[in-house]
């Protein structure tokens, strides 16, 4: 009851944003896992899964730019809603393909990228405008708690539903039905979003090429985050199809330990302080590295399940720490440079995209020049070990950010920037 009262004490927009994202979270496992599984089932080609992911990640930064222009004329709630519904449209395109050609996969991927671009660019802005540094741990902890619980139910239910159908035609029909349900859920999420009193950014210029040194530090952190995103979203589906077998195993493996993970994440978000973010981030990165290296060393059913279990805990921990760090830096540099927050949300995507390209390229190079098994076995481990650099970068960012934030009011922005630059070198 105490936790319910704490949620009710938050602002109206805070509650609506959480509820909107909660409803949309019902389709996230479908988008992240089972679209990749569909490609694997119908092509048995892991490179096509990664190419699909690359198409998505190409559409995202493009849409971030388009969204910045549209925000001058269109209400943010409408753009946010369109972004959610486009994910259903992308799945419809995928299911309508008679054969999974690279062109068809590319079109479906770009459309999903447009969806994600509209969704995440507006969601990130609403998160920073709705929360503050004191309640961001709680906001992301609450979201992650629901996401992790949903990750228990949805993969198992969908895996069971697909497995209950016999024959390739029956399984294809199951995917079509799932796509229809996804579209209905995105419409429900859009309806919830319209209950919010969200305002568009006031600044109309979003593209800049010079930034505070602290921001460049965050971009390097974003690059490492994107490195794993390059193919980590679809890696579980590829590993399970190759090692464990069918979609039923996919759902079961994704659900192992999820209840415990959800409870842990919620209480970390609820009671942790801003000063605890580096510790939370570090634990997530280390768990990810341990799971990835174990999978690379053994590459069997046990190692895949352990990797998925550790990833189920590690990813929420990393996100729980990363997003508040990102928004805190935006708070600081936007005040120094006197620019709107959306400027940094847009630019941040460039760092993520650079990392995603490198992550996907790592897998594809190993796939084409060595072998598929070699890529599946070692690419994740290589990237996980590289990501450990993020621990030291995040620690430095927080240290420098706190120093800049506590400087006397009399310090001019230019002087603060020079001092910060000398400290970062």
Sheet of most strands: none
* CATH class type: Mainly Alpha
Structure summary, number of beta strands: 0
> If you consult CATH, what is the topology?
Growth Hormone, Chain: A
The helix count comes to: 18
CATH 2nd-level architecture: Up-down Bundle
Q: What structural class is derived from the secondary structure elements? A: mainly alpha
Polypeptide structure, described:
By secondary structure, this protein is mostly helical. The chain has a single domain (9-196, 209-424), classed as MFS general substrate transporter like domains (Growth Hormone, Chain: A), CATH 1.20.1250.20. Helix content is 83%, strand content 0%. It has 18 helices and no strands. Helix 9 packs antiparallel against helix 16 and helix 13 runs antiparallel to helix 17. The radius of gyration is 21 Å and the shape is globular. The protein starts with a helix and ends with a helix. Mean pLDDT is 84; it is low at 409-425.
